[in-house]
Amino acid sequence: MPWHLLAPCAALLMFPQLMQAFYSPALPDLASAYALPAAQAARLFAVHAGGFALGVLLWGWASDRIGRRPSLTLALVLCAMCCAGALLAPSFAWLLACQAIAGLAAAACSVVPQTLVRDLYDGPVLRRAYSHLGMALSASPAIGLYAGALLAAHGGYRSTLLALSLASAALCAWSLASLPETRPGPGTPLSRALLQRMLADRVLWRRAAMVALLNVAWGSYFALAPFLYERLQAPAERLGESGALLALAAAAGAALNNRLLARGWAEPQLLRLAALLLAGGALAMRALDGNTAFALAMVPVITAFGLAIPNLLGPALAAYADCRGLAGALFALVYYLLIGAGMEAVSAWGSLPGVLGVCAAGFTLLLVRR
Q: Residue limits of the Major facilitator superfamily (MFS) profile domain (predicted)?
């Protein structure tokens, strides 16, 4: 995948993860500003994920109807406006509404670049492209948590919102300057035949559930870790430093995926290895519960994420070449709704070892039933 396409696509795909990582260090300040308990502040992630889920459907449809570039431009302008608008929120409910719409807008950064890549590549080349994007995405935790911690330390959650607004505007300008329009023609409209075809595709929805479980395992750290470090009286910098560790783990997963694909490993073998890593991380988190080194338990979890996600997403829509944007949107809608429900459960439960255990068990069960 040439650099002039890889760089903006990677930056766009990183943006939703960066938003999540940016918010994480700001949660204690947000909870303090609105006099909220930790569980209530952590609902920000669930609301954002719910908006994101609706957004993937909206922008997937729009990218097929009006084109990839116009959809991305509209979405990034909306995201910049909502993040700026949240700065003026008179109540937490208002802020959540702004973040739901910002999540809806940020979804274009996931669905449109993926559609663009699927327009340009297929087969083994597509898997390699996804793996390269995965290696770029591995920098998200390090950049997001470290930069988010700096922003939260110097301006609280308001500086985080301002930075996200400016980043949205910058991405809009970059994508307009760099990305081509790849829509092959007017997309297949949403029809009963397409819905029936997708609803009958059990393999597709199993993939969606596995993607959701991996994302909830990843996202639970961002939602709960700030309050765990605070409870353990660890230095505030510890959360930002853990981002570098998680970035290395994600890079290791993506690099391992590339190497094993080159050696001829098939998708089932790679997913079984990911399941073992995820289970190992859940057990390690149980062992390190109450220890300030608990971030070490996330290393196998994030490695599993980097290993499995390219193999779940890359070939998922091979049978839907005639409607990639819309099919991709429906597919992503389901797994983001599952992520949103999962993150709501995470904020209510508040147990990182428990969440990882459930995610590992569910992923393994789905893999066995393939």
A: 1-370
pLDDT tens readout for residues 125-148: 777 777 778 777 767 777 888 888
Helices (H), the chain: 3-33, 38-41, 43-65, 68-86, 92-106, 108-120, 123-137, 140-178, 192-199, 202-231, 237-262, 267-287, 298-313, 324-349, 352-368
What gap in Å lies between CA 148 and CA 160, rounded to an integer?
7
pLDDT at 295: 93
Per-residue model confidence (pLDDT) at position 189: 63
The amino acid that residue 223 corresponds to is A
Q: By CB neighbour count within 10 A (0-12 exposed, 13-18 middle, 19+ buried), where does 36 fall?
A: middle
Q: How far, CA to CA in Å, does 179 sit from each of 123, 133, 265, 313?
A: 22, 15, 33, 21
At a CB cut-off of 8 Å and minimum separation 6, what does 259 contact?
none
Question: How far is it, in rounded angstroms, from Cα 67 to Cα 53?
Answer: 20
State the chain's maximal CA–CA distance in angstroms.
57
DSSP letters spanning 34-89: TT--HHHHTHHHHHHHHHHHHHHHHHHHHHHHT-HHHHHHHHHHHHHHHHHHHTT-
Model pLDDT, residue 268: 92
User: Given this model, what pLDDT does residue 355 score?
Assistant: 96
Contact between residue 364 and residue 66 where contact means Cβ atoms under 8 Å apart: no
Given this model, what pLDDT does residue 1 score? 66
Domains recognised in the chain with CATH numbers: 1-180 (1.20.1250.20), 190-369 (1.20.1250.20)
